[in-house]
Amino acid sequence: MKNFLLPLYLFIHLSILLIIILHEMGHAMFAVLFSNKEATIYLGSHGNQKKSLNFKIGLFNFYIKKNIFKWSGGLCKNGGEMNFYQSAIYLLAGPLLPLLTGILLLFISRKYNSEYFYGFSFVFTGMSFLSLVQNLYPKKNGISLKSGAIIPNDGYSLVRLFRYKKRYPEYVKAINLFNEKKYSEGVLIFKDLIDKGLNDDNIIKVAIGSALMSKNYKIAEQIINEYGDSIEPDANHYINMGYFYSIMENHDKAMEYYSKSLKLNKSWHAYNNIGYHLNLSGNYTEALGYFDKAIAINPHAYPFNNRGLAKIKLGNVEEGLADLEHGHTLDPENSYYYKNKGIYYYDLNEYSKALEHFKKAKEMDADTYKIDFDIEQAEQQFAKLNI
């Protein structure tokens, strides 16, 4: 019995690894062939770059999880454009390649007098068939990505592809504009698709994200008011909803959505945004913990700028200014460096310097939170000193 169990265990584990590799390579090969753009292949994870070996071979960019005993699926990402039929082949290639490989191995193993080779071929083919069924059975919430987003499996993506068939070129154009960060152009196409009946969760979520990123808050409000609470949520959707309510200055509602996002995914966005709202309410001590966690995940300029303000408000001025300066080196175009530095000078009654920084913040981003109010307050205080 023991002589049978050990090879079976090895066959199953090796089959899982090989199925993941072949599945993602099936997607990647056709993605590169059809689009001539780079494909990023994650083996062992759903988009996690940490603890992964990274290397490139031509247009294939690999992230391979180092611990093969902790592999949990894979992911293929490609920003290239494919037509309807190419997209269908791309989706089918992932589940089909392992099964076709298994059938080939079974055929070859019959020519060799090796029970281990045949045994592995049999186990691998059986597991490949189960993987095919699992992947092609439509699941709307099939895969949870490292980012917190939840995406459908290949089967649901195929169903969605055929649903989009009549307007597929428009959909692809809008998605590509989103991937290229041309949000103001893409959101108009997404809104048109929604108005014409393609109002499923996928399009609504990306449309809301595009509207917010392009600062087209009117369209964002229209879509959210009609669909925001009816679609299947994920961590990214909750982040977008929280951001929308931040813009609307409904801070309680914003905190509610950010907290929901955090329960689904411990993202730096959620930690930073919760800390930001705690700053707004004057809870600087509590906010520091959230900024620390955000920075530990991703040392981005926003949490450094926000933590800097919290430290300054708590009297730890030297460390606070150091955080602001570090945030500025990470992203010199971040307007909140100038806003928060302006607040620092305002609190010192140095209204001329405060006004200079507030105006610089507005010049960089006119939508910086309450920057017009900051400028007005600084101008009033500066005028009083010069009466």
From TrEMBL:
Gene3D superfamilies per UniProt: Tetratricopeptide repeat domain (1.25.40.10)
Pfam families: Peptidase_M50B (PF13398), TPR_10 (PF13374), TPR_16 (PF13432), TPR_8 (PF13181)
Transmembrane regions listed in the UniProt entry: 6-23, 88-110, 116-137
Keyword Transmembrane (UniProt): yes
SMART domains: TPR (SM00028)
TPR repeats: 235-268, 270-301, 335-368
Record key words, sorted: Membrane, Repeat, TPR repeat, Transmembrane, Transmembrane helix
SUPFAM superfamilies assigned to the protein according to its UniProt record, in alphabetical order: TPR-like (SSF48452)
InterPro entries: Peptidase_M50B-like, TPR-like_helical_dom_sf, TPR_rpt, Ycf3/AcsC/BcsC/TPR_MFPF
Protein name: Tetratricopeptide repeat protein
Organism expressing this protein natively: Flavobacterium alkalisoli
